[in-house]
Amino acid sequence: xxxxxxxxxxxxxxxxxxxxxxxxxxxxxxxxxxxxxxxxxxxxxxxxxxxxxxxxxxxxxxxxxxxxxxxxxxxxxxxxxxxxxxxxxxxxxxxxxxxxxxxxxxxxxxxxxxxxxxxxxxxxxxxxxxxxxxx
Length: 135
Known about the structure:
There is one protein chain. The protein is an alpha+beta fold. 25% of the residues lie in helices and 45% in strands. The protein is built from three helices and seven strands, in the order αββαβββββα. Strands 1, 2, 3, 4 and 5 form a five-stranded antiparallel β-sheet that branches. It has a two-stranded antiparallel ribbon with strand order 6-7. The longest helix has 13 residues, at 2-14. The two termini are 27 Å apart. The model has no long low-confidence stretch (mean pLDDT 86).
């Protein structure tokens, strides 16, 4: 889930004239940790308030390409928007994610990084391992 903070930072950098840090919020909503598996399914929600741009699709396509460029599975994006005027809108983007959660006997946990397909290893592996195998 830490990668979502990097996504938020990259959005603020890319859209610096349209977004400000105090008006971009990241929430985790609608999560589920099933009792019989180690996957945690959840929805990450970005709330962009007072976007100064006339094209909300630019943010959506950036998010999609951001996942793709890092080799992560491209999630479904659901969104809604309130148009304030010709150049200002509020935008809510829901990103459906599944992460692997490993819980030990003591109750401590860690998240496994998202896995990507490695042609050379013919398997889904962490991105760092895939990158190393491709070199």
